[in-house]
User: Which sequence fits this backbone?
């Protein structure tokens, strides 16, 4: 891996609260600097709160590598899924005003709304959405391949979308569930989710450098650019557009503003002597609502979700946290309510463990624990299209001429895919993407990104064409979720 060693003045871009005043943090800059070099990261910012005040805040590295613009504690970073606790809080505020109950069914507030089946309609409540217990799942194909900015239109697709987990008795992480939660907020208030966040949270918490849209952030003078690693080299990537799933991950903020958010949660919902988040909601949101399956960490006998928060025992202390990942950015926010400690780390590196390791280093110091002898370097490299294309498999040729596959295919809850034949190749044209169909065998292909694809994830999903009783191509199966999605050919 190639390293870009940033000058010391850039790594120590802004010291708002000196480590020298906090004995446990002495030497922390050296540890963070070493991790930045090991991870070949561009920039990050850190803030720590304890006992109702900010005790440390600092920026490291660059927000803009090309122009060598340093990160400060007021540099804005997209925070990804750390947004979810904000959306949950809006519902908590509305519940305290007797405008909603978290035990209500979503259909009470969303017009023309139904889930996939009666069991879901009868059992799923709003609180199930907030703790990922609904069974809806992520429904990523509908959200990503067929985006729509209108949340109401998107959640009304749910009557056609099969659940991905057991209803009321599973842990299926769900951005779609939070889209529905945000839609409920909009229907109750008659205002957009974005306006509610500004009026009910950003304003009261003096989060003056926080935004809900990419356009607002880019009008500021101090925001970070997104980066990832490709074959060990730093690459600038695109910002992610959230469309309808903004309640699940669209907030952009600074460590100074996020410190206000942490102080509020650690002070029973009070900020600057004003109650912003109801105490009752704070207690429910930070109580185990859904147990997460799988392996347990050696120090975690409690592991699951509250409302927008992950809960566990860590270092022998009760901990609530949530991370965030979006194109070119990763974040970690950790709080220990009984010790009134909070740590937030925001970085402009894609899909990296770096913010979590820095948060671990800090919390170990604050609890007087031995440091980890060595942290792993764990960064998932960004995806970039491969220009090489393979010809048809001559031993397992398609059963029909390539032109026979062409046409418009539709699936309710998703949208339309147009299959076209250009330059002796098949392409799948979606609302925002165009993929080459590279042949696997007989009537099976996979989505292959073209040079126009700028997202950082690999979209390589299998496509299988099926015939009807007359032997004609009639259905396109997309294997992008737990169960294949059937797109039927329009006649």
Assistant:
């Amino acid at each position: 891996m190639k390293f870009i060693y940033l000058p010391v003045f850039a790594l120590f871009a802004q010291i708002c609260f000196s480590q020298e005043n906090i004995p446990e943090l002495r030497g922390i800059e050296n540890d963070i600097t070493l991790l930045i070099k090991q991870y070949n990261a561009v920039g990050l910012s850190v803030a720590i709160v304890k006992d109702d005040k900010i005790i440390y805040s600092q920026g490291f590295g660059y927000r803009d590598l090309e122009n060598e613009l340093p990160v400060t504690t007021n540099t804005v970073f997209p925070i990804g899924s750390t947004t979810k606790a904000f959306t949950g809080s809006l519902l908590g505020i509305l519940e305290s005003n007797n405008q909603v109950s978290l035990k209500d069914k979503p259909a009470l507030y969303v017009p023309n709304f139904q889930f996939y089946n009666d069991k879901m309609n009868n059992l799923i409540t709003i609180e199930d959405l907030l703790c990922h217990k609904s069974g809806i799942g992520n429904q990523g194909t509908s959200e990503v391949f067929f985006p729509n900015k209108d949340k109401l239109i998107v959640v009304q697709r749910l009557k056609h979308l099969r659940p991905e987990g057991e209803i009321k008795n599973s842990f299926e992480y769900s951005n779609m569930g939070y889209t529905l939660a945000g839609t409920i907020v909009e229907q109750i208030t008659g205002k957009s989710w974005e306006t509610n966040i500004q009026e009910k949270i950003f304003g009261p918490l003096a989060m003056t450098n926080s935004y809900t849209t990419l356009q607002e952030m880019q009008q500021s003078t101090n925001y970070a650019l997104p980066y990832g690693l490709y074959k060990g080299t730093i690459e600038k990537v695109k910002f992610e557009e959230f469309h309808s799933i903004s309640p699940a991950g669209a907030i952009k903020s600074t460590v100074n503003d996020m410190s206000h958010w942490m102080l509020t949660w650690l002070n029973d919902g009070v900020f600057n002597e004003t109650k912003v988040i109801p105490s009752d909601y704070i207690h429910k949101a930070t109580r185990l609502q859904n147990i997460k399956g799988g392996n347990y960490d050696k120090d975690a006998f409690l592991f699951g979700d509250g409302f927008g928060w992950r809960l566990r025992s860590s270092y022998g202390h009760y901990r609530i946290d949530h991370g965030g990942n979006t194109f070119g950015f990763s974040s970690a926010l950790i709080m220990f309510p009984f010790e009134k400690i909070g740590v937030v780390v925001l970085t402009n590196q894609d899909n990296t463990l770096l913010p979590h390791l820095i948060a671990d280093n800090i919390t170990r110091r604050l609890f007087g624990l031995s440091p980890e002898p060595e942290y792993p370097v764990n960064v998932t490299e960004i995806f970039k299209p491969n220009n090489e294309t393979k010809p048809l498999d001559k031993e397992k040729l398609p059963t029909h001429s390539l032109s026979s596959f062409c046409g418009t295919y539709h699936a309710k809850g998703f949208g339309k895919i147009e299959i076209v034949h250009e330059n002796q190749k098949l392409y799948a044209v979606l609302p925002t993407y165009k993929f080459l169909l590279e042949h696997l065998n007989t009537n099976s292909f996979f989505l292959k990104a073209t040079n126009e694809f700028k997202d950082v994830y690999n979209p390589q999903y299998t496509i299988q064409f099926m015939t009807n009783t007359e032997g004609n191509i009639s259905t396109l199966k997309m294997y992008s979720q737990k169960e294949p999605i059937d797109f039927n050919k329009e006649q």
Summary: Residues 109 and 219 are 34 Å apart (CA to CA). Confidence is low (pLDDT under 50) at residues 1-18.
